[in-house]
Task: structure prediction
Amino acid sequence: MTGSRSLSSGLRALRPLAFGADPSGERLARIRRSPHFADGAFVNPEGTRTRPSGGSALELAKVFFRKESRVRRAPSGTLPVHPTTYADLARPPADGLRLTWMGHSSVLAEIDGHRVLFDPVWGERCSPFDFVGPKRLHPVPLPLAALGPVDVVVISHDHYDHLDLPTIKALAGSDTVFAIPLGVGAHLERWGVSPHRLRELDWHESTKIGGITLTATPARHFCGRALRNAQHTLWASWSVAGDAHRIYHSGDTGYFEGFKDIGAEHGPFDATMIQIGAYSEYWPDIHMTPEEGMRAHLDLQGGRPQGVMLPIHWATFNLAPHAWAEPGEWTKDAAEEAGQKVALPRPGQPFEPAGELPVDPWWRAVSHPIETPWRPSRARRAAVEPARVSEGDLVTD
Result:
């Protein structure tokens, strides 16, 4: 037995730091008591598929590594990153709410006098190693230290493009509190974050930090950082409510009917940050397309176009077979069809949802042609080609 324990301890010592740690002790006991944990793993609110019927890893690899596909999955030139400065963020928002998209799913939200940083990834690669893995397509808009004090860091789940070791280690020495899904605290503690600064929540649990309430809400995704994923860390979307404003961050998720319930309980929201990139027919239930993202936003708002939608999880890393600019282009079209306000900032460009929104399609200047254009709805096409519309046109891509 002693030899077995020594071998186990030795294997743990060889585990890369970026892999984090597995939950144990009371944390693991709490996980096992969760109503969302069954048969040794966390489960989604609805079933999931990782690939369509007949799909295969080999077929995906052929698509992903095809030369013409690789070219269009990256910008054709240098991205126009907004030159954000500390002075930009030091001025309080006029209406009490300001969002700054830093790229991918990283957003600084200034809400009712509090500063909340969602899924901060300042690392060069979303990978456990610094020499391989998806690399940034644009630099971070400003150094992490230039953000100024952050009251709460919110993590949606433990994938590398949302939970970044270099960023967490840089924040570990600050006074910020971390709001995280159940189980993720094991990673943060291994990386130097004090347990007393962790607010570790199951779905539907809330914590109050200063004058804001943060609630972990359901999402349809999965977890894991090591070679063997035990599904012992939860994934979540987040509702944040201040004295005057409410915002929502989707994390990574497939579309599911639960958005309506989240909206009914916690909305409507002044702004939603919705994942609309890195989708594929090979994983249809764990990431949303732009059309599904717009549907999720409307569900969260009680079915009516209101608030502002900020598209996230695109433009920064090459993680799926679709064209690099496709999520932005399709989201813009989906918003126009729905009559929904959408903010389309350059990375690093602050905006206030109650003020003038950034809507310029900045990506077009550095985008290769999109192979699959957005197909408008029947009503939109009818205005242009009334004689050619048929009942089959009711379906949109």
